[in-house]
Design a protein that fits this description.
The structure is a homodimer of 415-residue chains. The first copy, chain A, is α/β, with parallel strands linked by helices and 415 residues long. Helices cover 42% and strands 20% of the residues of chain A. In chain A, the strands form four sheets. Chain A has a seven-stranded parallel β-sheet with strand order 10-9-11-8-7-12-13, sandwiched between helices. A four-stranded parallel β-sheet of chain A has the order 5-4-3-6, sandwiched between helices. In chain A, strands 1-2-16 form a three-stranded antiparallel β-sheet, with no helix packed on it.
Chain lengths: 415, 415
Amino acid sequence: MTTQEILHKAKGCCGALAVADTDQKNRALLAMADALIDNTDAILQANSADMDAAKDTLSPSMLDRLALTAQRIEAMAEGIRQVAALPDPVGRILSQIQRPNGMVIERRSVPMGVVAIIYESRPNVTSDAAALAVKSGNACVLRSGKDAFRSANAIVNALQLGLSQIGLPAELVQLVQDTSRESARELMTAVGYVDLLIPRGGAGLIRNCIENARVPCIQTGTGICHIFVDKTADQAMALDILENAKTSRPSVCNAMEVCLVHQDIAKEFLPKLHKRLVTDRENQPVELRLDSAAADIIPGKTAEPQDFDTEFLDYILAVGVVEDIQQAMEHISRHSTGHSEAILTQDEKNAGAFTRQIDSAAVYVNCSTRFTDGGEFGLGCEMGISTQKLHARGPMGLEELCSYKYVIRGTGQIR
Amino acid sequence: MTTQEILHKAKGCCGALAVADTDQKNRALLAMADALIDNTDAILQANSADMDAAKDTLSPSMLDRLALTAQRIEAMAEGIRQVAALPDPVGRILSQIQRPNGMVIERRSVPMGVVAIIYESRPNVTSDAAALAVKSGNACVLRSGKDAFRSANAIVNALQLGLSQIGLPAELVQLVQDTSRESARELMTAVGYVDLLIPRGGAGLIRNCIENARVPCIQTGTGICHIFVDKTADQAMALDILENAKTSRPSVCNAMEVCLVHQDIAKEFLPKLHKRLVTDRENQPVELRLDSAAADIIPGKTAEPQDFDTEFLDYILAVGVVEDIQQAMEHISRHSTGHSEAILTQDEKNAGAFTRQIDSAAVYVNCSTRFTDGGEFGLGCEMGISTQKLHARGPMGLEELCSYKYVIRGTGQIR
């Protein structure tokens, strides 16, 4: 099927899901989960073909992302069941007023319609995204990266069996059958067919969508996350937080990339930081890239200017010394990608200034930036992390996959 | 100043307004209103130059939109004062939860940052848009149409005086000094400088923005609004509503363009409709464009297929006969622009089906589509009517000019 045909089918059937009740959607999700398990063999076979084809071109960590096992498929099914257990985001009455003329105006949450997701090589995104779309009443059109195509296709085939079993159109979850750049472009420009486009992947994909999308699109992902260690910070706490934010999972967008330290404590604190992140971590030391003031105090590479504008996604940290909170906030405003930033301080006034003035999706006081995540925020799930300000900001859960409409009831009112 | 310089200044000063308190913003608005009045002469002079330049090219109704009088300037000032009286949309706590690990996660409304508005020839949009932007904590970059440029410039000069008087940067409200297509394109592609772009104007402008915008953009405006007269409709009420929806102000986007009538009442109802909209309106009869079933019953032009896809913005109405509510909803789904649709019925089941299934910003039961308006919805004001589903749908008031951020306070939590 061509991408055009897939979009046409999605548009044609999304109404069926928009008016489905919660029970029907949950039964669909449970059937999708069961179908994944029932089709484990077919999925593993497809995944093994993907792995074979990619083994010479992908890095070991990318291959690990791509690999499926029976256990990982079970985890995907469990993820779908968890989405079934979440509250239905559709049909909530967001507000209701009666106007002086007697009209009752209700704002009611409704699905977007057709949600398109362009992603890369994690096969589990296929089932995650499909589950979130179905629960929020949206048809979804998925476009996987080339490396994961066979796996994604086998997963979608299984999910479609689940949908059909409970009498919903299989076309509610579809995979674009073409992984060329052209198919991504078709989704980006499908005005009238795609109500929301979500790119999930690296900076190149996001930039491509921003440049080329004509349909409503959410900018996700890139995180150059900063942590500012104020002069009043609890230094033991700061070391725990910095180590966690940098090393607990360096490859994700909420990991810290830049640490700024107040000059009044730099001489005392930076050697402790060096010990914690470098000396104490024999097996996996963090490479520090230091501005000149920091380099005067501790050993490490000298930072190049671009090191303060780089999402390393690795055991690398840019470290700078700042005069005060004002300079820290100015640095962050210039270099942040609007994802997550933190201040570590015991000074309530500085905490307030930081949370008011820093213009990022998540602004932290005295905890790790690693918490910017749908699950950690109590949303139960996540379709991605928005780093722009339209519609959704930060982790996008089920509610963020909905729009609303006004329903107005009258008794003959005219204007 | 070039558009780039204007954008740079807007970005540089929007932080000042983002942290301004309600009182300071309201004082700024009142000073802006006073400055408009104080500068009435300069504004009228500029407007008179605009009128002279446009008198041979614009239609009388367009010239009337462009014309200012001391009274209209007073009305603009009064509009600003009304915005000052509205609740502050910034700093609302949208949700607050405590996580099991003790972190408190708060979702707090914040300004967008820089809002760009591209509009056409109504000078009053200049002060309306500026007032809404300032109240919602946003810097605004305005780009007026060529015909209204001198007027808009004089208005912005006055508004800037008001801002300066209370110590806020004048650059919070700026007018692009170039009315070429190029300046519109610069706004549309100012990634990193424009947080929200709102086009206000005709279908050509909207299409241009959708085609070319790289910054987050709201699709506004075009309204091919339908009213379906069900077989159980109160026919006297229906005639009042239809006349109001078509003739009270045909040039606006919430006016009805298409009327669909249930076949069971067509023979009885269509002659009444013809009498009300044509025969009884000697001075301003509505031109009916009839599908073949309607043409068999009442006199009128035969509709061409495109008449059911046209925003007439005039005393013209396309009329069709449908078999039942299902066919009415299918017609609307195919032809609607997602603005406003109504069902006139006494059948509660049909009212429910219509409000659930029709996918438009505003769905009415037994009242006129003309109510789709920020003021009529109790929002106090409006920046435009969104006909898309991302971020805002229907009338956009102050809350829709805001985003939110997460503020997370902890005591050393790590993940």
